[in-house]
Amino acid sequence: MKFKLLNLLFLSLTLPAFSLVAEQKIHSTDFVADGVFHAAIEGPATDQNGYLYAVNYGVEGTIGKVSPEGEVSLALTLPKGSIGNGIRFDQKGLMYIADYTGHNIWRYDGKQLQLHAHQPLMFQPNDLTIATNGVIFASDPDWKNRRGQLWRIETDGRSSLVETEMGTTNGVEISPDQTRLYVNESAQRRVWVYDLDDKFNASNKRLLIQFPDFGLDGMRCDAAGNLYIARYGKGVVAKVSPDGTLLKEYKLKGEFPTNVTFSQKDPGLLYVTMQKRGAVELIKL
Q1: What pTM did the predictor assign?
Q2: Which of 51, 104, 179, 285 is most buried, by the most CB atoms less than 10 A from its CB?
Q3: How far apart are CA 99 and CA 115, in angstroms?
Q4: How far apart are CA 130 and CA 261, in angstroms?
Q5: For 227, left (φ over 0), alpha (ψ -120 to 50), or beta?
Q6: Structure confidence by residue, pLDDT tens digits, 130-176
Q7: DSSP class of residue 79?
Q8: Measured distance CA(218)–CA(232) in Å, rounded
Q9: Contact, 268 vs 285, CB < 8 A?
Q10: How many CB atoms lie within 10 A of CB 275?
């Protein structure tokens, strides 16, 4: 009996340590090595063939293209004075790029780059999400003053404010059933959710979840509607259910994830752009 009690005591003392080790397991692998992209890598998105695109390939103002096998090449260079951030593809396969220095949204069909929208009242358009009808929602943070805005951009390029005087708006996403719009605030560590009607008008804003520490960056929904959020400074991707429950944290190799995206060809692949490393990590879900 004494031996059993000693064993139980040993287990009770060591189990927390083993649990801590398990929680620190790295869930990702390197897909693109350090330094291939600029330290300010951002805006990952994949096309219908599974090719990954991200901004700042080698130098700022460029967009790199990564094959499913990990081979990297230059996709395009933005006009002088423009630096991309968020990238999204619409239902037709057109690429849209948030240009935070030029206050622009660019459209690229694989051959020609065209200006889709210019809005001088934007602080610096950051991330994008696109509804099935082509309407774009763009986050617009003012980092210096820890505030931000949310814009709606029509298919003809006209823009209007959805909301102003928010926190530092960053990640933005539409649920797969097109009934919800999610927006996070980096410095305030909050994720908000709006209802969307059949014309994609946003209403009924409410708090989904607030984190106690570190920052929030880009985010995406999986097919089940769960959010995957880049936790800047913590080095994890947080999985959050549609009701705001933190389901899991995927530990990364680096500490500064800027954004995430699923492969359109294989939704079990989650790509994560890593600031400072200039790399892309891959989580196989």
Answers
A1: 0.91
A2: 104
A3: 10
A4: 14
A5: beta
A6: 999 999 999 999 999 999 999 999 999 999 999 999 999 999 999 99
A7: P
A8: 9
A9: yes
A10: 23
